[in-house]
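Structure in, sequence out. Go:
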């Protein structure tokens, strides 16, 4: 018995006369290329086998009882599953009309009977090669189409991003322009306190723009892969404490207390100090920004083992607030760009909607992660997890 090779193409020979099937099969089996030949005695069985076995090529006799070769060809070309299988029609009828029928019905080629051995092999080879290049091109164009879709979506996202950014810059810029114009036109009649007040408002608008531009630059740097974390050992307690201290005054003006008890022992993380500080700062800033007057914000640091199998220790910084909480729907958008959600700043603070998207990406850059647990109406808890020194 001949060994079947993996790269052998399967050829289905459909003919009602056994001697023809045997003759064609013999030629194919002795071809230099490895072919696996299967046969069917009529068009109906041929169609079923084509469907089930998906041969690389079908050689189809024309005149057969029950279902002619032409009918079978039409059935095969109609079905999506067999449409792309090339079919070579055998025609002994000598009429070029038949050839025309067959080619119009989708046949890849035709051969006149009695079949010439060399011609048979040449046509078979050509038909298979053509079908394979066709399927290759089809696959590639499908892939290109997919990539094109992705690029269009990315481009759309960039346009939206640009649109929102421009819009957010326009408002404070408008304010600056209007206030400057008033001062310019009316400074002689304006009381100095009013000029001072306008200057303060101009400063405020400029700050908003500055903050947005800084966030946009961060987003851009992260997305361009431009942020390379400088991973070092450092005591996370110091970073958290520094941020808590810098926010205590601001929280106090809203009657908010920051509760942080420094753990006794050092907790040494293996991360980037500045990026870690930026993350903690964003989360504490949010907790203070979205909490109503008089509430409490709790900050805790804990350590865990990643898994029983690994000796990788992880540290978790938790920031829990008693603010409005975040609905399940809002939670799905929380870490996206320009996510200004249901909760509004409670003390007139500015909000660009970029903070958490930056936080998430920065955490990931350091092989850490960040997530949120919250029930609407019951406050929110944010977690940052970072690797520790082993
Ligand atoms: N602790 C929180 N409690 C309730 N809602 C929150 C909390 N933190 C964030 N949110 C909601 O998620 C949105 C996105 O937060 P994010 O920090 O990304 O942006 P932002 O605070 O609006 O602006 P930015 O941080 O860029 O100044 C906020 O607008 C707010 O609606
Ligand atoms: Mg924020």
């Amino acid at each position: 018995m001949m060994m079947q090779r993996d790269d052998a193409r399967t050829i289905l020979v459909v003919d009602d006369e056994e001697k023809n099937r045997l003759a064609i099969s013999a030629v194919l089996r002795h071809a230099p290329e490895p072919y696996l030949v299967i046969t069917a005695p009529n068009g109906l069985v041929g169609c079923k086998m084509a469907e089930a076995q998906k041969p690389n090529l079908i050689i189809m006799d024309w005149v057969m009882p029950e279902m002619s070769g032409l009918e079978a060809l039409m059935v095969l070309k109609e079905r999506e599953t067999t449409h792309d299988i090339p079919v070579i029609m055998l025609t002994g009828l000598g009429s070029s009309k038949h050839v025309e029928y067959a080619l119009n019905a989708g046949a890849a080629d035709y051969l006149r009977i009695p079949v010439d051995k060399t011609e048979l092999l040449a046509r078979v080879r050509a038909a298979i090669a053509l079908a394979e290049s066709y399927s290759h091109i089809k696959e590639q164009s499908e892939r290109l189409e997919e990539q094109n879709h992705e690029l269009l979506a990315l481009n759309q996202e960039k346009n939206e991003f640009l649109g929102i950014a421009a819009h957010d810059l326009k408002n404070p810029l408008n304010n600056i322009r209007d206030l400057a114009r008033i001062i310019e036109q009316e400074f002689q009649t304006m009381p100095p306190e009013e000029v001072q007040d306008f200057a303060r408002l101009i400063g405020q608008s400029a700050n908003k723009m500055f903050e947005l531009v800084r966030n946009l630059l961060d987003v851009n740097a992260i997305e361009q892969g431009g942020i390379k974390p400088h991973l070092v050992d450092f005591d996370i307690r110091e970073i958290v404490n520094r941020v808590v201290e810098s926010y205590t005054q601001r929280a106090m003006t809203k009657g908010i207390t920051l509760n942080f008890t420094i753990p006794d022992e050092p907790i040494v993380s293996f991360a980037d100090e500045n990026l870690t500080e930026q993350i903690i700062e964003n989360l504490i800033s949010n907790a203070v920004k979205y909490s109503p007057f008089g509430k409490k914000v709790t900050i805790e640091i804990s350590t865990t083992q990643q898994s029983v199998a690994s000796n990788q220790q992880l540290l978790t910084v938790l920031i829990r607030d008693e603010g409005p909480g975040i609905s399940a729907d809002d939670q799905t958008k929380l870490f996206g760009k320009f996510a200004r959600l249901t909760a509004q700043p409670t003390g007139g603070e500015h909000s660009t909607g970029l903070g958490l998207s930056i936080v998430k990406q920065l955490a990931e850059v350091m092989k850490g992660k960040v997530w949120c647990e919250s029930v609407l109406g019951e406050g929110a808890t944010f977690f940052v997890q970072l690797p520790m020194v082993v």
